[in-house]
Amino acid sequence: MRVMVTGGAGYIGSVVTEELLKGGDEAVVYDSLYKGHREAVVEGATFVKGDLLDTAFLRDTLVKHRIEAVVHMAADSLVGESVKEPAKYFRNNVLGGLSLLDAMREAKVSSLVFSSTAAVYGEPAKQPIEESDPTEPTNPYGETKLAFERALRWYEGAYGVRFVSLRYFNAAGATERCGERHHPETHLIPLVLQAAAGERPDITVFGEDYATPDGTCVRDYIHVVDLAQAHVLALHALAKGHPSAIYNLGCGGEGYSVKQVIDCARRVTQRDIPVRVGARRPGDPAVLIASSSRIMRELGWRPQQQQLEAIVASAWRWMQRPRA
Ligand code: UDP
């Protein structure tokens, strides 16, 4: 299948591209490089530098490369920033997404896999979270992802777009070639590993007075390769006529607290990691754990690397890789 990956020069996008190529699909990476990195575009993929808001260029790219399906991952994704700059999030995540849907209609491409997020649920009423639970985002990031999911439902009825929306929990880890590199970095695992590597003096734990076993927030970490494989499964299911669907993507179980992640990183790296305890980060729910039973049941998805040790070790190997 010929697949366009928007945001394919980013962290998760590069791994999705890798998995597509591995499975014999062709990939065209469409990325503005405003956050992505040219060198993250996987060898073997065609790279097109373009803006999501440029509908005509998107349409021309879809037609020129005879694209059959799209994975849409290009988006802004920082909760804190979204609260300070909602306009940026509505423009890039909602308008950008609608521009893509217009281009797809014009180019007659009707299959889409969308990167959504656990942030659509807001402060969850229960754990583990199921797809049918209430969606009440507590920040513009989650709101804009939910807005696009809602547009998809109406576009499906009117224009025949079929979609799978994947609500990611905490993506982490790396492959040999592709890893996490955000500027600025805000995610826990890369920050903890930077502290282990001596690239930052310490790691700040955002609050230790939550109603959790050790007082720190609990999250559901999922290996980026397991996440990427779900995209490939979803694309192939859509191609076989699978109806539109929304799926959570996490490993489930008990999840891991911030302190457990730090302890795990100490074991993996065999380094000292100084810790400071700071204030809670606004908008952080105490616990976010996915029920992923729907995607397991309907698409046969199974995470292969559920152990936090394996996830953290892969990220550490990637950070320690020899660089040119
Ligand atoms: N966190 C932390 N210190 C940091 C960064 C993150 O304690 O420097 C916590 C954060 O409060 C959350 C968890 O680590 O409970 C995971 O945060 P991350 O930003 O990696 O992902 P999120 O859950 O926001 O998607």
What key phrases describe this protein's structure?
single chain, 324 residues, alpha/beta, Rossmann fold, UDP-galactose 4-epimerase, domain 1, 2 domains, seven-stranded parallel sheet, three-stranded mixed sheet, 14 strands, 39% helix, 18% strand, globular, binds uridine-5'-diphosphate, NAD(P)-bd_dom_sf, EC 5.1.3.2, NAD, carbohydrate metabolism
List the helices and strands and how they pair.
Layout: E1 2-6, H1 11-22, E2 26-31, E3 46-49, H2 55-64, E4 69-72, H3 79-84, H4 86-107, E5 111-117, H5 140-159, E6 162-168, E7 170-172, H6 188-196, E8 203-206, E9 218-219, E10 221-223, H7 224-239, E11 245-249, E12 256-257, H8 258-269, E13 275-278, E14 287-288, H9 293-299, H10 308-319
Uridine-5'-diphosphate binds next to α6 and β8.
Structure explained in plain terms:
The chain has 324 residues and is of the alpha/beta class. It has 10 helices and 14 strands. The strands form 4 sheets. The chain has a 7-stranded parallel sheet, sandwiched between helices. It has a 3-stranded mixed sheet with strand order 12-9-14. Strands 7-10 form a two-stranded parallel ribbon. It is globular, with a radius of gyration of 19 Å. The mean pLDDT is 96. Bound molecules: uridine-5'-diphosphate. Uridine-5'-diphosphate is lined by residues 79, 170, 186-188, 191, 203-206, 217, 219, 258, 281, 284. Uridine-5'-diphosphate binds next to helix 6 and strand 8. This is UDP-glucose 4-epimerase. It comes from Stigmatella aurantiaca. Homodimer. It catalyses: UDP-alpha-D-glucose = UDP-alpha-D-galactose.
Quick take:
Its cofactor is NAD(+). The chain is an alpha/beta fold and 324 residues long. It is built from 10 helices and 14 strands.
